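User: Write out your own:

AI:
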Amino acid sequence: MTDCDLCGRGIPTVIPVRVNPPLLKFAYPEGVWKGLCETCLDSAQKTYLTVDNEEISCRRGKCSLCGKKGRVFPVELQIPSFSKGIVKKDAPVCSNCLKAVDETYVRYKRKQINENECIHGHEHVHEH
């Protein structure tokens, strides 16, 4: 079991996202891996898309994924709670990490589609 780095949910596997924490720039020039659950990945992707289109209100703060201080955007988390079921809370995430989430999201969804095609045995035949 491992925990999601945004909401803290304990799940068997997380989806790896490569981020570049400024404090670890020299030790890890390629970045470090953070693990997100599928719910947080979807929510961060949604925020990434609205940042580009609507330029949602940003605030200054510290990114929950890389720790960089500066402009951050709210990513809605669904934190499991024994007493309340699910508690919704916003986590600040910087634009660099949102871009990394977008790249991971596209790769992850593409992999899911390919796996589903293999499982169901659908072969696409193109007629000419």
